[in-house]
Amino acid sequence: MNVAIVKYNAGNILSVTYALERLGVSPVVTDNIEELQKADRVIFPGVGEASTAMAYLKERNLDTVIKKLEQPVLGICLGMQLLCSYSEENDTTCLSVFDERVVSFLPNGTDKIPQVGWNTISDYSSNLFNDLPENAYCYFVHGYYAALGPDTAATTNYILPYSAALHKNNFYGVQFHPEKSAAVGEKILQNFLDIV
Amino acid sequence: MLAKRIIACLDIKNGRTVKGVNFENIRDAGDPVELGAFYAAAGIDELVFLDITATNEKRKTLADLAKKIAAVINIPFTVGGGVASIEDVRILLQNGADKIAVNSAAFKKPTLIADMAREFGSQCIVVAIDTKQEADGEWYVYLNGGTVPTSTTCLAWAQEAANLGAGEILLTSMNHDGTKSGFALEITAAVSKAVSIPVIASGGGGTMEHFEAVFKVGAADGALAASIFHFKEMEVHALKSFLLDNGLPIRL
């Protein structure tokens, strides 16, 4: 299977590459438009800040390319947030694949921001979560979240319930890091590869 | 609910995992990559790889090791030991580390924490503090692998580090480290109360009840241990089952 990872100015690409290699897939890391378009699967990773990432994508015309992809696309963490309509992080207009908006966690006096660590996901409504038990633990690192909405495909509760995952047509997004979420994360990546 | 974390620490010297008792009398516990993969499969939540020779011997980075670890391990890991510059952090993150632990260099030049946080985000900057309770009852910061005392209190330094942008405090009690007599509950609780970032307690975990206490009494977000895991004195899954049965949010 031909898997492309979008190469841009946001980190964690090596970890995603290794996670796929452990599943027997050798991904290409590329910002070449043709290579992205012809891949069987596209992974849009990301750790970083929304506005600089969007600016980088626009400069290379990757914003319009990503939106129009027709094969299964998986956004991870910042990648998922950039697929949403808008991010409060530096007032950034995003790709609007998903209708949801990305907003900042507000302090509640007890929970720490950003959320860092293992939290449970539930209320699955996507083939991304096939054969996973409810309340599976995944690894999260984020200070902004996508609100609940029509594309919500799994929820997590931290300060409030929010979208742990989004799914609309051929586009998938996860707020957590499947590449760091042990066996659960591997299953989710495998499900993404197995989409028919 | 966000889970309390159980973390295994691998102290590394000359590419091998070792563990000292009170930082002395080092014993060999094997290949770090292999051991790390074993813990990941056993259900540990996170791994910390500390090159304990690094600060003393001025070795710069653990980049090669980070890359080998990232290739085989499917959970988050922190790398530390001699990290002293923005460039050190950049190389380690590029090589697959999720977080970087910085200790003596940050104490000597605190603005380093702010610079690292601005460049890479607070979430990947762990400030490791080795602390020792002296005869006057106060907890002081020690540097260079616990060999150099300072006159700064642990609490003051933890607060300063958090204010500068540290994402997490890894707090090691030198009085407790290697003793298996329980974690330093009071100083852990004091630091946890004083800062709004996660606190990882390290040093002294010997029984499952010690771990329960460090979460319930010490208010720790994570608990770290080394030798009890390395020498199979405590099994990770059994420990986590015990904590879950005792009402703590734990990933099983």
Quick tags:
heterodimer, A: alpha/beta, Rossmann fold, four-stranded mixed β-sheet, 13 strands, 31% strand, B: 252 residues, alpha/beta, TIM Barrel, eight-stranded parallel β-barrel, globular
Q: Can you give a write-up of this model?
A:
The complex is a heterodimer of chains A (196) and B (252). Chain A is an alpha/beta fold and 196 residues long. Chain A is 26% helix and 31% strand. Chain A has a single domain (3-194), classed as Class I glutamine amidotransferase (GATase) domain (Rossmann fold, 3-Layer(aba) Sandwich), CATH 3.40.50.880. Chain A has a seven-stranded mixed beta sheet. The model of chain A has no long low-confidence stretch (mean pLDDT 95). With 252 residues, chain B is an alpha/beta fold. Chain B has a single domain (5-245), classed as Aldolase class I (TIM Barrel, Alpha-Beta Barrel). Chain B is built from eleven helices and twelve strands. In chain B, strands 1-4-5-6-7-10-11-12 form an eight-stranded parallel barrel, surrounded by six helices. Chain B is globular, with a radius of gyration of 16 Å. Chain B starts with a strand and ends in a 7-residue tail after the last helix. Chain A binds chain B through residues 11, 14-15, 18-19, 21-22, 47-48, 111-112, 114-120, 137, 139, 141, 143, 157-158, 177, 179-183, 185-186, and chain B through 1-3, 5, 40, 43, 45, 67, 70-72, 74-76, 93-96, 98, 121-123, 167-168, 196-198, 221-222, 251.
